[in-house]
Design brief:
There is one protein chain. By secondary structure, the chain is mostly helical. It has one domain: Alpha-Beta Complex (Sufe protein. Chain: A), CATH 3.90.1010.10. The chain is built from 6 helices and 2 strands; from the N terminus they run H-H-E-E-H-H-H-H. Strands 1-2 form a two-stranded antiparallel sheet. A hairpin with a 5-residue loop joins strand 1 and strand 2 (about 65-75). Helix 3 runs parallel beside helix 6. It is globular. It starts with 5 loop residues before the first helix and ends with a helix.
Length: about 140
């Protein structure tokens, strides 16, 4: 499977005809997400504001220009897919790039706002806030 990028995500969402197919795609993305090692599934790594359990960690790649790599997991299929989307958007970027991402624009391009329940939408943005906080701490 080719690397998942924002452009590829948007393109894939546009190709899929209806929201039932898009939900299946999101769930399929979640199935492909590697499991997070159990040692990271602790309260300190749990994302607050999500109805489902979501654990998120960050690794800093210490190159000349340090980038952040995010690893995450959830106990809910659709949420694992949403996590995969966020990892595609944010992983491998510098802290400055992460903080500059216009996630609301991407969210609209994927047309997620009108197709996620309010609790899932809140959870999605709780994950974004956690990613930004981790990026801010690494900056």
């Amino acid at each position: 499977m080719p690397e998942l990028t924002v452009d590829r995500l948007i393109q894939n969402f546009e190709i899929l005809g209806n929201w039932e197919e898009r939900y299946r795609y999101v769930i399929d993305l979640g199935r492909k997400l590697p499991d997070l090692d159990e040692k990271y599934k602790v309260e300190d790594n749990r994302v607050k504001g999500c109805v489902s359990n979501v654990w998120l960690i960050t690794l800093v790649n210490d190159d000349k220009t340090p980038t952040l790599e995010f690893k995450a997991d959830s106990d809910a299929h659709i949420v694992r897919g949403l996590v995969t989307i966020l990892l595609a958007i944010y992983s491998g970027r510098t802290a400055k790039e992460i903080l500059a991402v216009d996630i609301k624009d991407i969210f609209q391009q994927l047309d997620l706002e009108s197709h996620l329940s309010p609790s899932r939408s809140n959870g999605f943005f709780s994950m974004v806030e956690r990613i930004k906080a981790l990026a801010q701490a690494a900056a």
